[in-house]
Amino acid sequence: KLFFTDYGNAAKVERCDMDGMNRTWIVNAKIEQPTALALDLINKYVYWVDVYLDSVEVVDYQGRKRHTIIKGKQIRHLCGLAVFENYLYTVNSDNVSILRINRYNGTDVQSLAGLDNAKEIRVYQKRTQAAVRSHACEADPYGLPGGCSHICLLSSSYKARTCRCRTGFILGSDGRSCK
């Protein structure tokens, strides 16, 4: 699944399949300007920062179990968000520092380091990497991803895929080659 935020005409947090199909709103009420998003892949939770409402909130993948982690002026300048173990990590763009926030109760907010310039944060650690299993976009015997001549996107499951073409090309009737 692909998770994303939108604060155009109607602010929301959404998810869809990697090919863009099955687009679903998971949060569309009491949300104004969601700017950063992070996933807890193990427990299947979505965290986001709303800079207009000065809050960090969480829901499960279906949009249930919503609650506020932390609210207040210290949220106003947050950008970027990452989850690791018991904490959320974010960048405060006002004083350009990395903050650590307890994701279960919003307490224990600590400034960990100052930076020259940052807008995003990621945690790379072996335990946060999902195990890779065989999937529909693996290279075929000819080296084509999922048998697609240009782009292979996972669909509704890791066993299904959709082929797409680069700009200027159209998908052939076989659903795999681009012309």
TrEMBL record:
<dbReference type="GO" id="GO:0017147">
    <property type="term" value="F:Wnt-protein binding"/>
</dbReference>
<dbReference type="GO" id="GO:0060070">
    <property type="term" value="P:canonical Wnt signaling pathway"/>
</dbReference>
<feature type="repeat" description="LDL-receptor class B">
    <location>
        <begin position="44"/>
        <end position="87"/>
    </location>
</feature>
<dbReference type="GO" id="GO:0005886">
    <property type="term" value="C:plasma membrane"/>
</dbReference>
<dbReference type="InterPro" id="IPR050778">
    <property type="entry name" value="Cueball_EGF_LRP_Nidogen"/>
</dbReference>
<dbReference type="InterPro" id="IPR011042">
    <property type="entry name" value="6-blade_b-propeller_TolB-like"/>
</dbReference>
<dbReference type="Pfam" id="PF00058">
    <property type="entry name" value="Ldl_recept_b"/>
</dbReference>
<dbReference type="Pfam" id="PF14670">
    <property type="entry name" value="FXa_inhibition"/>
</dbReference>
<feature type="repeat" description="LDL-receptor class B">
    <location>
        <begin position="1"/>
        <end position="43"/>
    </location>
</feature>
<dbReference type="InterPro" id="IPR000033">
    <property type="entry name" value="LDLR_classB_rpt"/>
</dbReference>
<dbReference type="GO" id="GO:0042813">
    <property type="term" value="F:Wnt receptor activity"/>
</dbReference>
<protein>
    <submittedName>
        <fullName>LRP1B protein</fullName>
    </submittedName>
</protein>
